[in-house]
Amino acid sequence: MRNQFELDESIIYLNNGTHSIVPRKILTAITSYQKEYERNPTQGLMNAWGRLWDVQKKVGKFLNARPEDLFFRPNVTEALNAIILGVDLPAGSEILAADLEYGAIVNQCRYRAERDGLKFRQYTLKNLGSGRSEGEVFETVVRELKPETSLLLLSHVVTANGLKPPIKKIAKHCRERGVLLVADGAHSTGAMPVDFGDLADVDFYAGNFHKWMMGPKGTGFGWVHERNQDKMSLVSAGWTTFEKPKPFELFGGGSRFAEKLFFSACRDFAPFFALGDLVDCWTTDWNPETIHARIRELQKFCIAEVERELGWKLLSPQDERLRGPLVSFALPESWAAQGYSLMTELLEKDKLQLSFAPYGEPVGKSFCVRFSPHVYNTEEEITTAMKVLRKRVDRTRVTGA
């Protein structure tokens, strides 16, 4: 598939967990939709609502979700804002999240608690170690649920170390306890099957298309199970909040939930129109199982190369059933505090694009390194990346810097 992408051969790009590279075919589609729109922007705007609903139906079919249960947003953070800040929660109840949850989403939980006089608490998953079992992860999460816990934030794949909790089992337990489960699916769609028919006990979910699914930048989605839609209060309002004016009649299929959560203002719609083309790629041009298998294959190769060349401690689960598409390692002590500055230096001096994720205490002061290869990467690139890092390790030992 490598020849389907506009790649910069001067760099090694191993940070698809932040943004993947968009296929040439999707870039062409985005540009085509933008040009088409600009020929008559007024009519383009009037036509946008029906076109977006057609795309939402296509995306819903791909995710095995009713289109009226979905809503588009530019990214998972904005989708989770609508959910976490909008879901009705009992007065004085508790929002619960692990210490490995993504910082921006943790801040949403903190803000919601502060705004409404709720409690916010974090528990630790960080200390489980890479040898954890599914049972250990399950027990660690569910034993933290208290009688006052009303909402649990849980990543489908943890961004810091790739942990993939047994979300279906945890969701079932949460439903039995009357706890709402909000799933952060930023790193799932495109890297593994996401089937909302199979996630029936999950209450709320949000994901990105511009990571592992290789979609247009600024495209994400939220999903709210039908049973919970009357528990959602709006955090923003617009044209479709109370009724649906005529220009928007082609969107929503009669669902008031879909209409109220809908984009009802001017914007660049081209990336969202192109999601239809992206789904066509995944269902017609590509084999999802082959893509998922290739991601796994490259990940295993990456783990083996790190162990052979660098000997760094694996922070991701050893059990593949608990490991998502990205993999993380502890950095040498002299590197762990550098974080984003080291990431920039590696790109500028060594033409290597990696991600350094916060990992450790105090928050934001210690970092791990994260590798997230995708289908257009090669084993040769990974081997070269390890040699670059090996040279830096050797130089650090000599110079101490």
Give your account of this protein's structure:
The chain is an alpha/beta fold and 401 residues long. It is 40% helix and 13% strand. It has 12 helices and 12 strands. The protein has helices at 24-39, 41-62, 76-84, 103-116, 134-142, 167-177, 256-260, 270-285, 288-309, 333-336, 340-350, 379-399; strands at residues 12-13, 70-73, 94-98, 119-123, 149-155, 180-185, 204-208, 220-224, 327-330, 352-353, 355-358, 367-371. It has a 7-stranded mixed sheet with strand order 2-8-7-6-5-3-4, sandwiched between helices. A hairpin with an 8-residue loop joins strand 11 (355-358) and strand 12 (367-371). Helix 2 (41-62) runs parallel beside helix 8 (270-285) and helix 3 runs parallel beside helix 4. The longest helix has 22 residues, at 41-62. The protein is globular. The model has no long low-confidence stretch (mean pLDDT 95).
Largest sheet: 7 strands, mixed
* Percent helix: 25-40%
- Kindly report how far apart the N and C termini lie: 39 Å
**Strand segment count:** 12
Number of helices: 12
- Strand proportion: 5-15%
The neighbouring-strand order within the major sheet is: 2-8-7-6-5-3-4
Task: Spell the H/E element sequence.
Answer: EHHEHEHEHEHEEEHHHEHHEEEH
- Cα radius of gyration in angstroms: 22 Å
Low-confidence runs: none
Secondary-structure content class? alpha/beta
What is the averaged pLDDT score? 95
What is the general shape? globular
